């Protein structure tokens, strides 16, 4: 049976995502995203499931940064998970007694409205995950009065939900990805996504425009673009791209090769089926057959036959 690492402990949203992606595998809870990815890199697990982005807050930057450095991992699948937050307390705690709340930063930012309205004096402390926060609160004598977590974490750690569905929006969705060590790519399905990390060779006017042009001229639609600091100084950035299509598609393959020529370093993060099954947009003149036909035409020109 294969084993997948995830952001633990038991009861995180990440665990719920893993169960959807791979119901029958062994689960290895890890203390943070970096540890889950390292478990996959080191072979302690066959892969990992980690959060990537949220429909309200955007990227989980720790995941973006961990995927951009260290030994390469490939994304092999994704799932979109609706997330609903509960306020969990030790039995007997009342709302007025809550002064210190612990949760994952991504949960905090999505519950700001509730905290400002109902618990204006409370401070919120960052925990490594929503379930780790619940576990902290469950310890007798814990310095924390409440955790913002999935309801299921209350059942695991013996806490009561003093309030439910406390997110600022009720339709929030988080995208989780499954990664593994590089290997054969998932087959193209016609509704795929490809992820890349691009580091500039040198900083110059139009550098980003040049990269985007590689996609634009071949009709490749982007679904996410993110700049992240390299850490080497103010103004030094690298870029994450998610785009429609599979690297096996001519249009995507050519754009990726073009980007490779432009960039100092281009990291391929995988081609995999989209969770929402939305079919790739193919503009006229950018289908595989169009690229084949153009290559044959060029061959004839070069051979003096046309
Ligand atoms: O801490 C968790 O449960 C996670 O899986 C990370 C997370 C936190 C908040 C929203 C979405 C994902």
From TrEMBL:
Its EC number is 4.2.1.51. Transmembrane segments: none annotated. It is an enzyme of class 4 (lyase). The lineage of its organism: Bacteria, Bacillati, Actinomycetota, Actinomycetes, Streptosporangiales. Residues 196-273 form the ACT domain. Pfam families: ACT, PDT. It comes from the Bacteria. It catalyses: prephenate + H(+) = 3-phenylpyruvate + CO2 + H2O. Signal peptide: none annotated. NCBIfam families: PRK11898.1 (NF008865). GO terms for molecular function: prephenate dehydratase activity. Residues 3-181 form the Prephenate dehydratase domain. The keyword Amino-acid biosynthesis applies. The record marks 174 as: Essential for prephenate dehydratase activity. This is Prephenate dehydratase. Pathway: Amino-acid biosynthesis; L-phenylalanine biosynthesis; phenylpyruvate from prephenate: step 1/1. Keywords: Amino-acid biosynthesis, Aromatic amino acid biosynthesis, Lyase, Phenylalanine biosynthesis. InterPro entries: ACT-like_dom_sf, ACT_dom, Chor_mutase/pphenate_deHydtase, Preph_deHydtase, Preph_deHydtase_CS. PROSITE patterns: ACT (PS51671), PREPHENATE_DEHYDR_1 (PS00857), PREPHENATE_DEHYDR_2 (PS00858), PREPHENATE_DEHYDR_3 (PS51171). GO terms for biological process: L-phenylalanine biosynthetic process.
């Amino acid at each position: 049976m294969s084993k997948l690492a995830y952001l633990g402990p038991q009861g995180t949203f990440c665990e719920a995502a893993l169960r959807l992606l791979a119901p029958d595998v062994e689960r290895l809870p890890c203390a943070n995203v970096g540890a889950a990815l390292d478990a996959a890199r080191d072979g302690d697990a066959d892969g990992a499931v980690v959060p990537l982005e949220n429909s309200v807050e955007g990227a989980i930057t720790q995941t973006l940064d961990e995927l951009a450095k260290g030994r390469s991992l490939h994304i092999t699948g994704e799932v979109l998970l609706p997330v609903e937050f509960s306020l969990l307390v030790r039995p007997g705690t009342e709302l007025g007694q809550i002064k210190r709340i612990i949760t994952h930063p991504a949960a905090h930012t999505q519950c700001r409205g509730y905290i400002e309205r109902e618990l204006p004096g409370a401070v919120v402390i960052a925990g490594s995950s929503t379930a780790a926060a619940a576990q902290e609160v469950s310890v007798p004598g814990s310095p924390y009065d409440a955790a913002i977590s999935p309801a299921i974490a209350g059942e695991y750690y013996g806490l009561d939900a003093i309030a439910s569905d406390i997110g600022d929006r009720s339709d929030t969705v988080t995208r989780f990805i499954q990664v593994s060590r590089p290997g054969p790519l998932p087959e193209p399905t016609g509704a795929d996504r490809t992820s890349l990390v691009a580091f500039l060779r040198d900083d110059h006017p139009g550098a980003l425009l040049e990269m985007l042009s590689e996609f634009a001229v071949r009709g490749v639609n982007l679904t996410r673009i993110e700049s992240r600091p390299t850490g080497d100084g103010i103004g030094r950035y690298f870029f994450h791209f998610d785009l429609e299509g599979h690297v096996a598609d001519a249009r995507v393959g050519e754009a990726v090769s073009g980007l490779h020529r432009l960039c100092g370093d281009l990291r391929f993060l995988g081609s995999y089926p989209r969770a929402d099954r939305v079919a790739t947009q193919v503009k006229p003149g950018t289908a595989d057959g169009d690229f084949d036909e153009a290559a044959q035409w060029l061959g004839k020109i070069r051979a003096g036959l046309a």
